[in-house]
Design a protein that fits this description.
- The protein is α+β, with helices and mostly antiparallel strands and about 775 residues long.
- A 7-stranded mixed beta sheet has the order 15-21-20-19-18-16-17, sandwiched between helices.
- Helix 19 links the parallel strand 18 (about 550-555) and strand 19 (about 585-590).
- The protein is elongated, with a radius of gyration of 32 Å.
- The structure holds 4'-deoxy-4'-aminopyridoxal-5'-phosphate.
- 4'-deoxy-4'-aminopyridoxal-5'-phosphate (PMP) binds near residues 457, 481, 555 and 591.
- 4'-deoxy-4'-aminopyridoxal-5'-phosphate (PMP) binds next to helix 15.
C-alpha cells in the first residue's frame, strides 16, 4: 500500500461522532495542515480548544506511545509542550477504522494558544533567541529518554540526511535548484560530516520548523513547541540546526539569525565545540533534505500545498548561503557560543574560589598562579569559564577523553536501567570482570571492584596479608599509593613529606631507581642490581627481626617520583627476592595501565614479570569512580576466610558498564597504538628541545607517559623547581595544561588523555619551546 493510501481521509462528521463517543466531547472541527496525518482544531462546546490528530496508517504504534511518554517526561522541565487528553476510559489514544478497514490511531492534545512563528509579525532576533532557549529546555528534558520505536529510519533524521539527498535529488525538476542542493550536500559531506563522529545522540524533537513553533501574539517569546511526529533518536545538535534552517529562510542576514538562535540554545544547554562546528552544516543539510523531500512528495501528491510550504523561501535562501564560505557560518556559531569574558568572568572565578575556601578543607590545593576555572571538557580539551579552549596534556583520569560520549552514554543508560550492588546477580559484573581479566596474563584472573585506587591498594594489602600471614611491606622512595592511614604509611611521598610522621615499623622504604639523579645512574651497567639490592636489604632486615615479608608494593612506572621507568632487570630481581622470602608482589598500575605506554597494556609487561596482585584506578573509569584489584585465584581463596567482602558501590552495575565502555573505546579507537605513535613524536621533539635548552636535563618515559626534568645546572643536575613552575604557568597562558612532579618538583609531567593527537603534540612542542625561551634567566 502506498504512503498516500495510508494517509487518513475521514469526514469531519465521522470524526465528531467518534470524539463524542470516545472522549465525551462535542464541538466543531477545522482542518489543519499536516504532511502525513489528518489534523483538526477541535473547539468543544464550552470553548476549550484542542488538536485532534488522526495518525497516518503507516505510523508504528510504538512511535505514538513514545511521543506520549516523552511528553509526560518533558512536561516537568518545560512549559512549552502540549498536554494529552485521555479518553473517557482513561487511555491516551483511541483507534478509528477507515471504511477500507485500515486502523488509525487518534489522540487529542491541548491547543497551544499563539501564532505560528511562520506568520508571526514580530519575528526578530529576540524571538529567535528565545526559540533557542525553549528548544534547549526541551532537549534537556528529553535527555536520557529513549524508546525503541524512535531508533528508526526516518528520512528527516539528519544522521541519514546525505543518503536521503542522494536518493531523492533526482526528483527536483529544476536543474539549477537541483545542482545547488547537490552542491550544498557535497559541502556538508566534506566539511561537516567528519566532525560529527562523536556528536552526542539522544531523542530530539526533530522538526522545530516555523509552523511547529508557536509564539506569543505580541511578545518576543515562544509559548509552544508542537508536533512531536518526527521525534527520533539522532544527533542532539540536530534540533537547533533544524530550527535554524527555517528561522533563516528569507532573513536579510541569515548568520545573525543563526547566531541568535545558537546563543539562546547554548546558554541553556552548552554544546560542545565539535557540535557547535556542525550546526551550520547541519542547518544547510536540513534545507537540502527539505528540498528533496518536497520534490519527492510532490510527485506523489502534486496538489498538497503543505508539502511545498517552505520551498519558495528555501529557493531564495539557498543561493545566498552558497555564496559564502562554510567557515563564515561556523565562525558565526562559535562567536555566538563564546561566553563573554574578562572582568565579570574573573570576578566570578574569584567568587568560586572564595566559596571553596569557606567550605572545603584548606589542605585541598589548587594548581597554577591563577587557578583554572573549568566549565566543560571534551576528549583532550577543557573549556575555561570564559569559553577558552585548553589543550589538556596532563590529566590521565579521562583516559579515553573527557566526557567521551560512549562512556557517558553507557553510564547514563545503566543509571536509568538499574544501579545496584554485587549482592544481586546482574549481567554487568561478570561481563566486566571477564573483559578486564582478559587484559591480563594467566594466572591473574580474579577481580575485585572498588571506588578509588586508595581502596584498591587497601584491599591489595589485605589480600597480601591474608595470603602470607605477614605484615611487613616494602615500598619505594617517593611512592604514592593512597590517602588512608595505612596507605600514607606505605607512601614515602606522604609520610616523609611535610606533615608526615615517617614510616611505621612494618614499612621498609627501598631506593627509588632513579637513573638520572639517584645514587646509581644510567651509565652504570649494574644500576638495576644495586637498586634491587636495596629491596633485598629490606627482606634481610625483616628476616633478621624474626618476621616474614608480606608484600612489595610499587608503581611499575613511578609517577609522583618523577615519571621514571624502572631499569630492565630490576623488577624480575626484586620479585624473585620477595617471593623467595614468602612475600607477594603488588603492582600499582594506577598511572600506567590501559595502554598509556603505547607498546604494552600494563607497564609490568615490559619487565617479563607477572605480579601477584595488580591495582588499577584512575583511567579505568574515565572519571567515573572505579578501581579494581586483579589477582591469582589462590590469593583470592586465601582472602575468603569467612569474613564477607562487600563494598556498597564497588562493582555496582553502572560502574561495570562504564568500565566495559572504556575498554571498548580503547579497542575500537585503537588508542594504545595511537599513544605509541604520538608518544614517539613527542619524545623526538622533546629530545630535540633538550639539545637546544641545557635546562632540560632529562627526557624520559614512553607513549603518553612522559617526564621532562628541568635543572639549573646540567652538570650538577641541580633541580630547578622554579623554572618548572614558570614553564607550566607559561603553557597555561598558551592554553595548554601540563603538571609538575618529582621529589624536587622539577619534572614536567606530560600525561594527556589518550585522544591527544599529533597536531596537539606539535602544538605542545612549539609552546614548550616558547615557554623555555621565555623563562630563560
Ligand atoms: N596509586 C597511585 C600510583 C596514584 O597515583 C594514586 C593517585 N594519585 C593512587 C594510588 C590513589 O588513587 P585515588 O586518589 O583514586 O584513591
Amino acid at each position: 500500500m502506498s504512503q498516500l493510501e495510508l494517509t487518513p481521509n475521514f469526514e469531519p462528521d465521522e470524526l465528531l461522532a467518534f470524539v463524542q463517543s470516545t472522549y465525551g466531547l462535542s464541538g466543531a472541527l477545522e482542518a489543519l495542515p499536516s504532511e502525513r496525518d489528518q489534523n483538526f482544531r477541535l473547539t468543544v462546546d464550552d470553548g476549550r480548544r484542542f488538536v485532534l490528530k488522526v495518525a497516518h496508517g503507516g505510523e508504528a504504534p510504538g512511535v505514538i506511545e513514545a511521543q506520549h511518554q516523552a511528553l509526560a517526561q518533558i512536561a516537568e522541565s518545560t512549559r512549552v509542550v502540549p498536554s494529552v487528553l485521555t479518553t473517557v476510559d482513561g487511555r491516551p489514544t483511541a483507534m478509528l477504522t477507515s471504511t477500507e478497514g485500515l486502523p488509525h490511531l487518534v489522540r487529542i492534545v491541548s491547543w497551544v494558544e499563539g501564532t505560528p512563528l511562520a506568520s508571526a509579525p514580530h519575528a526578530g532576533l529576540a524571538l529567535v533567541n528565545d526559540l533557542g532557549r525553549s528548544l534547549a529546555q526541551l532537549d534537556a528534558g528529553l535527555a536520557g529518554f529513549d524508546h525503541p520505536a524512535l531508533r528508526r529510519g526516518l528520512d528527516w533524521d539528519l544522521t541519514v540526511g546525505l543518503e536521503v539527498v542522494d536518493r531523492y535529488a533526482p526528483a527536483i525538476a529544476d536543474d539549477e535548484h537541483r545542482s545547488q542542493v547537490q552542491g550544498m550536500a557535497r559541502r556538508v559531506r566534506r566539511q561537516t560530516w567528519p566532525g560529527l563522529q562523536r556528536a552526542r545522540r539522544q531523542v530530539i524533537h526533530g522538526d522545530a520548523n516555523d509552523h511547529n513553533v508557536i509564539v506569543h501574539p505580541t511578545e518576543p517569546r515562544v509559548v509552544g513547541l508542537i508536533d512531536f511526529g518526527d521525534m527520533v533518536h539522532s544527533w542532539l545538535v540536530g534540533d537547533v540546526a533544524i530550527a535554524a534552517a527555517y528561522a533563516v529562510l528569507d532573513a536579510s542576514e541569515p548568520l545573525d539569525v543563526l547566531a541568535a538562535l545558537v546563543a539562546g540554545y547554548h546558554e541553556e544547554m552548552p554544546l560542545r565545540a565539535d557540535e557547535l562546528d556542525a550546526v551550520y552544516g547541519l542547518m544547510c543539510l536540513r534545507l537540502c533534505v527539505s528540498a528533496v523531500m518536497a520534490a519527492q512528495q510532490a510527485q506523489q501528491r502534486p496538489d498538497d500545498p503543505y508539502l511545498q510550504v517552505s520551498q519558495a523561501p528555501l529557493r531564495r535562501t539557498l543561493p545566498k548561503l552558497l555564496e559564502r564560505p562554510d567557515g563564515l557560518g561556523r565562525q558565526a556559531v562559535r562567536d555566538a557560543a563564546a561566553i563573554p569574558w574578562s572582568a565579570p568572568v574573573l570576578a566570578e572565578t574569584s567568587r568560586v574560589a572564595q566559596r571553596r575556601e569557606a567550605h572545603v578543607g584548606s589542605s585541598l590545593s589548587l594548581g597554577y598562579e591563577r587557578p583554572v576555572h573549568l566549565r566543560r571538557g571534551f576528549l583532550q580539551y577543557l573549556f575555561d569559564a570564559d569559553g577558552t579552549r585548553l589543550l589538556d596534556a596532563y590529566n590521565n583520569v579521562p583516559h579515553v577523553g573527557h566526557c567521551h560520549p560512549a562512556v557517558v552514554d553507557a553510564a547514563v543508560a545503566q543509571q536509568r536501567r538499574l544501579a545496584t550492588n554485587t549482592r544481586y546477580l546482574c549481567d554487568a559484573l561478570p561481563a566486566y570482570a571477564e573483559a578486564l581479566a582478559a587484559t591480563f596474563p594467566e594466572p591473574l584472573s580474579v577481580c575485585f571492584f572498588l571506588n578509588s585506587a586508595t581502596e584498591a591498594n587497601e584491599l591489595a594489602l589485605r589480600l597480601a596479608r591474608a595470603a602470607t600471614g605477614q605484615r611487613d611491606t616494602i615500598v619505594l622512595e617517593a611512592g604514592y599509593h593512597g590517602h588512608t592511614t595505612s596507605l600514607v604509611d606505605c607512601s614515602h611521598y606522604k609520610h616523609a613529606g611535610p606533615g608526615g610522621q615517617g614510616a611505621p615499623d612494618w614499612v621498609g622504604v627501598a631506593l627509588l631507581p632513579d637513573l638520572y639523579r639517584g645514587p646509581f645512574r644510567a651509565d652504570d651497567p649494574a644500576a638495576a642490581d644495586h637498586y634491587a639490592a636495596s629491596v633485598s636489604d629490606h627482606v634481610a632486615r625483616i628476616d633478621a627481626a624474626g618476621r616474614g615479608v608480606c608484600a612489595f608494593l610499587a608503581e611499575t612506572c613511578p609517577s609522583v617520583g618523577g615519571q621514571h621507568e624502572l631499569p630492565a632487570t630490576y623488577l624480575s630481581q626484586v620479585y624473585a627476592a620477595v617471593r623467595a622470602a614468602g612475600g607477594v608482589c603488588i603492582a600499582d598500575e594506577v598511572q600506567t595501565g590501559f595502554g598509556r605506554l603505547g607498546d604494552v597494556f600494563y607497564a609490568f609487561e615490559h619487565h617479563g614479570v607477572v605480579p601477584d596482585i595488580v591495582v588499577l584506578g584512575k583511567p579505568i573509569g574515565n572519571g567515573h569512580p572505579l578501581a579494581a584489584v586483579v589477582t591469582r585465584p589462590e590469593i583470592a581463596r586465601a582472602f575468603d576466610n569467612g569474613m564477607e567482602f562487600f563494598s556498597t558501590f564497588g562493582g555496582n552495575t553502572v560502574s561495570c558498564e562504564v568500565g566495559l565502555a572504556v575498554l571498548e573505546v580503547l579497542r575500537t579507537e585503537g588508542l594504545q597504538a595511537h599513544a605509541q605513535a604520538v608518544g614517539a613524536q613527542l619524545l623526538g621533539g622533546l629530545a630535540e628541545l633538550a639539545e637546544r635548552y641545557p635546562a632540560i636535563g632529562d627526557v624520559r618515559g614512553r607513549g603518553l607517559f612522559l617526564g621532562v626534568e628541568l635543572v639549573a645546572d646540567r652538570e650538577a643536575r641541580t633541580p630547578d623547581a622554579a623554572r618548572a613552575a614558570a614553564v607550566s604557568n607559561a603553557l597555561r597562558r598558551a592554553q595548554i595544561l601540563i603538571g609538575t612532579d618529582g621529589p624536587d618538583h622539577n619534572v614536567l609531567k606530560i600525561r594527556p588523555p589518550m585522544p591527544f593527537d599529533k597536531t596537539d603534540a606539535a602544538l605542545l612542542l612549539t609552546a614548550l619551546d616558547e615557554a623555555m625561551a621565555a623563562t630563560r634567566s
